[in-house]
Write a structure and sequence with these properties.
alpha+beta; Beta-Lactamase; 3 domains; seven-stranded antiparallel β-sheet; six-stranded antiparallel β-sheet; elongated; binds biliverdine IX alpha
């Protein structure tokens, strides 16, 4: 019964997704004891591929499955295995017209893992070197993080043919945003959509750091258990962290159904040992991708990860440069117009106060005169804000990315001013330079109608994807993209220079008067 069970936002983090005791049935699995090399567990679908039930294979050797020459090829590799997978093509006695398989082999948790994926032929998919060469060239040449991401999604889509390939970038709170996308023209764009951190729970993130690619070729599959489910040596299901066939969390499968996804493939993008983002590929219908091609996609993910810091540096340097240039121009305007009306210098010529760094709007409040630029709250709201600042924000430069969290009156202006930087001009109280940033959330539209609120897994109640989204939405509504350190620095510098210029102009006027 669901009664009495508590559902919390982090119960997803406790689902033991590394030991599902089951696989996805696009292949079959044999687990060998690493010492005896006997089969200790097999997936319950061996009959489909081999004509032999799992129960009969368990306890025996590989000779039951492989002809002597094929067995010799496999055994030559067994001793060399680690968590890094080895790939081998084999021909098995034809059953159901499937003679050829690729075996993906690794060693982990006391087990030698042999995962068999059926293939049409044994020839390795030719490595398209010219394609890779051109792709790498484009990635190297990209002049910004966004351009770099766009090339990457274009390449992954060209290689794999998924209906949609997106880059999903994590924020500091582990929620994320789709920042690049390549898709079929008839699909709705996801660009700019934000998703909560709970969509990818902690243990899944930890796993995607170890294993660079997660592949779910048919989100509508029925899980196939291992026979027996528990490993005889450990007494529990074996740890499938590195197994490609690892069965998927039922909650995530519900999520994929909600999204209208028939297949997904996800490539980790890693920076400084942390997940920076993921390339997520979706297909409306089930879709198989060969192991070789998945390997190539991993290679692209690793290349991306290796080059990412250089692209971020380009972005930062360029942004910093733009800010400095615009600041100097702004200071010139202010100096020139300072004699008559220094507010004109801030607001009338390009760049204005609003153009120095990225924001939605800006305002100058000077000696009871209020000038607004871009999209801002109403004059009344700004005056209320200033009254609030005078009472609650003594610092020279105050900033927030969620004003409504500090003052409920902020709720009414969240569309223009969830984020605020306020620089007080020293001499008279009530004089401020203000920058505004809008609320950032663009909410997701779920595919299909899944009104179920709770999901039951092994008798435990878990938060459902939709429920998690609703709770997160309430948390992050009223929140703007965070102010970056370069922007806060710029605001401080503008405040100081403006006071400086005003002082000089004042002194000049004084001396002219004398
Ligand atoms: C896994 N969730 C994932 C994965 C992605 C997302 C990419 C990796 C597996 C895959 O490739 O499908 C989420 N996918 C997204 C997001 C986008 C996308 C945000 O394309 C945006 C564009 N999910 C929930 C809740 C839980 C949950 C509430 O919404 C908690 C119970 C769980 N998500 C969950 C789990 C996994 C997962 C357990 C791991 C699946 C696995 O590898 O077995």
């Amino acid at each position: 019964s669901l009664l009495g069970a508590t559902i919390t936002l982090n119960n997803c983090d406790r689902e033991p997704i590394h030991i599902p005791g089951a696989i996805q049935p696009y292949g079959f699995l044999l687990c060998l004891d690493e010492h005896t090399q006997r089969i200790v567990q097999a997936s319950a679908n061996t009959e489909t591929y081999l004509g032999q039930p799992a129960e009969r294979l368990v306890g025996g050797g590989l000779d039951q499955v492989l002809a002597p020459d094929q067995q010799a090829k496999v055994e030559a590799l067994l001793g060399t295995l680690s968590t890094a997978p080895k790939l081998l093509g084999v021909r098995l006695a034809p059953v159901a017209g499937q003679p050829y398989f690729k075996i993906i082999m690794h060693r982990y948790d006391g087990v030698l893992w042999l995962e068999f994926e059926p293939v049409d032929q044994l020839d390795e998919a030719p490595l398209d070197l010219p394609f890779l060469n051109a792709a790498l060239g484009q990635m190297l040449a990209a002049g910004s993080v966004l351009e770099f991401c766009q090339h990457t999604v274009d390449q992954v889509r060209a290689l794999t043919g998924f209906d949609r390939v997106a880059i999903y970038r994590f924020a500091a709170d582990e929620s994320g945003e789709v920042i690049a996308e390549a898709k079929r023209d008839d699909l709705d764009p996801w660009l700019g959509i934000h998703y909560p951190a709970t969509d990818i729970p902690q243990q899944a993130r930890a796993m995607y750091l170890k294993n660079w690619l997660r592949f779910i070729p048919d989100a509508g599959y029925a899980p196939v258990p291992l026979v027996p489910v528990r490993n005889p040596a450990s007494g529990r299901p074996p740890d499938m962290t590195y197994a490609v066939l690892r069965s998927v969390s039922p909650i995530h499968l519900e999520y994929l159904r909600n999204m209208g996804s028939g297949a997904t493939m996800t490539i980790s993008l890693i920076q400084n040992g942390k997940l920076w983002g993921m390339v997520t590929c979706h297909h409306l219908t089930p879709r198989l991708v060969s192991y070789e091609l998945r390997d190539l996609c991993q290679f692209i993910g690793k290349t991306f990860s290796a080059l990412l810091a250089s692209k971020e540096l380009l972005d930062n340097t360029e942004y910093q440069l733009r800010i400095s240039e615009r600041q100097s121009e702004l200071f010139e305007h202010v100096t020139v117009s300072g004699q008559t009306n220094f507010v004109d210098g801030l607001c009338r010529f390009f760049p204005t106060l609003q153009d120095v760094f990225d924001c939605g709007g800006a305002a100058v409040c000077f000696n009871d005169e209020l000038i607004t630029l871009g999209s801002t709250p109403t004059p009344e709201q700004i005056r209320d804000l200033i009254a609030w600042l005078q009472e609650h924000a003594p610092e020279d430069v105050f900033s927030t990315s969620s004003y409504a969290a500090l003052n409920p009156a902020g709720l009414a202006m969240r569309a223009t001013a969830s984020g605020i930087i306020a620089a007080s001009l020293a001499d008279a109280s009530g004089n401020y330079l203000l920058w505004f940033r809008p609320e950032q959330v663009r909410t997701v539209t779920w595919a299909g109608q899944h009104e179920k609120n709770q999901t039951l897994v092994d008798g435990q109640v878990f938060l459902s994807p939709r429920q998690s989204f609703e709770s997160w939405k309430q948390l992050v509504e009223n929140t703007a993209a965070p102010w970056r350190p370069v922007e806060l620095e710029a605001a401080k510098e503008i405040r100081l220079r403006i006071s400086d210029i005003r002082l000089k102009v004042f002194n000049e006027l004084q001396s002219q008067a004398r």
